[in-house]
Amino acid sequence: MTTDFTDLPLDHRILKSLKTKGFEKPTEIQSLAIGHALLGKDLLASSKTGSGKTLAFLLPALHRVLREKPLSRKDPRVLIIAPTRELAKQVFLQLKWLISSQNVTATLILGGENFNDQVKALKRNPQFVVGTAGRIADHVKDKSLYLNGLELLIFDEADRMLDLGFADELKLIDHCADHRKRQTMMFSATLDSAELHYLTEKMLNAPQRISVGEANAPHLDISQYFYFSDHLDHKIQQLEKLLESTDNKQVIVFTATREDTDKLSKHLSEANYDSVALSAGLTQSQRSHIMNAFSRGQHQILVTTDVASRGLDLLNVEWVINFDLPKHADEYVHRIGRTGRAGNLGNAASLVGPKDWDSFKSIQRFLTQTIEFSELPGLAGKFKGFKSKTAAKPKTVQKTKRSNKKTDAQAPPKKRVRTIEGVDVGDAPMRRKPRSASMDVESDEEE
Ligand code: ADP
Ligand code: MG
Predict the structure, then answer these.
(1) Are residues 126 and 167 in the same domain?
(2) Atom 10, ligand 1: residue with shortest CA distance
(3) Which atom of ligand 1 lies at the shortest distance from residue 54's CA?
(4) How many of the other CB atoms lie within 10 Å of CB of 279?
(5) Which residues of the chain fall below pLDDT 50?
(6) In a shared domain, residues 194 and 248
(7) Which atom of ligand 1 is nearest to the CA of 47?
(8) Which residues line ligand 1 (CB under 6 A)?
(9) Residue 440 CB: number of other CB atoms within 10 A?
């Protein structure tokens, strides 16, 4: 195992930048991925949140740009795509820092920003382009971005882009940059979905699969707590109680919808907390303003949706609170990974009400462990979860909507009746939508 960056065959200018930053030892994913990437191999790489995946792809990419002759003088040599504007910007800033004393050019292409300014920036033939999938694909269609000379295509959080319904854009980009010499790399903490497998089969050429640890292994730097909740007001009381114990450290609170981010943040501000809301419904300048202020530590609490669950590296965040559970277990892993980064310790608390129960079960299944519940003083929930449906259903009774359009004589299954006194019992069946059709409000989509 590599113990020092200097053990890796990286260009001396890169080693110098790392030294200046005080980075001496590569993380495990870095030493493995860099070694393989420098051999020109396609990669499918995963490791836990906060383990340094960004440099694992930026360092070999920069090495290539510094050392190898370009395939084209005009087209970008490296294209990096991320699922959200905030993450693309963060990757871009890390790249800018790395190339600050080199003669290397880069541009950032985000949805929500002026298209023509981006066309002008692309005309200057940057060697690196970093951006979000939708807008990059728009530039390809507009012929303001040509990918014939692309040498390295990198997908950060590739699985999330599919969740957001960007499969077509990714395929278009792949198609326009399709030549023998292209190298492709995908990174995420969760890379096991069937849909992603289909894409990797198409886009990657005999990829090297690197995975450091399992996606569902417990993240030892994050203490996880779960609390039963009865209804909205109860959740709010529990949230305020949890906030009391955060010692004014930064907190990210995740809600299910963008509307809820506003409502909850307003409520917290009225209760004298320093809180801001971030969702994909805001303008790009509002989003930038909020993220800049929060990352500089100007606010204690960021209330947001899954738009901020991926990749964001905010080292002062010590608490993640799931006011609502995410629908998909993968997102739970990413949400809590906004804390406990780069060896720091963090805490994650999740409020589990009746409407979260199916999500909770799915998270528990994913984490393959029995989760213990805690109680907040004076705020224990009456709700204690629903009993599992033990009675095996006859195979002919299908759960999908389609099967309920009775083509057979089978009666539709009876709806589960859930009643508990004093508890807001919802019925929110968690069902993963087909990814291409998941551009709904709750996914808080990007462009
Ligand atoms: P991931 O993409 O795996 O979630 P990031 O690339 O965002 O993780 O990195 C998490 C944090 O770790 C960042 O603040 C980054 O600067 C820091 N970091 C990355 N590599 C190293 C290293 N080799 N030594 C020390 N810190 C590192
Ligand atoms: Mg990352």
Answers:
(1) yes
(2) 50
(3) 6
(4) 24
(5) 391-417, 426-443
(6) no
(7) 3
(8) 23, 25-27, 30, 49-55, 311, 313, 315, 341-342
(9) 11
